[in-house]
Amino acid sequence: MRDVASEMYRFGWMLGTGGNISTLISREPFLLQISSSGVQKGNMKLTDFITVDENGKVISGHMKPSAETLLHIAILKATGSKAVIHTHSVNSTILSEVYGETGKISISGYEMLKALKGNKSHENTEVIPVLGNSQDMPSLYEIVLQRLNRDDGIHGFLLKGHGLYTWGMNVYEAKTHTEGIEFLLDLLYKKILLSGREKI
Ligand SMILES: [Zn+2]
Fold this sequence. Notes:
L-fuculose-1-phosphate Aldolase; 9 strands; globular; binds zinc ion; alpha+beta
């Protein structure tokens, strides 16, 4: 996970202490290894990770869990995936505001859509929901869980004014999904700028 976090940092998607990354150790009992709160992602040490249970309680490690640990747990439970990546990129933050009222971004017609598991064609339409941000993690946990339980084949979602969550069956698949969606968001943002419109 440290190599992936370091790459995300270099891409400018986990600057400051923003973003987090996790992988599932086991589902029964539910054990998750996750980056701890307040650490730089550019050069993480093994001790910067902690293990938590399904309530976000620290089982091993000496650092504090991220406030967003519960959202990782919601994603892993609802999607059956085994790794989660959360970025604070400029593009995901801006577009989550632009499309916040619409509640979703729909993208089709690009070859990069095939980076997202199950998309076999550039003609697929990828929907990226935009959910409201909150510091009330238990209630955001419920909102995320409910949205993902619709099981409609999405690969990520945005939190308004905050960033992107993606997932995969391992950390490298989650990384592929992060890169694919960040690429599509970058493309959409530049297309909006070129069009001179507020959104397209
Ligand atoms: Zn965040």
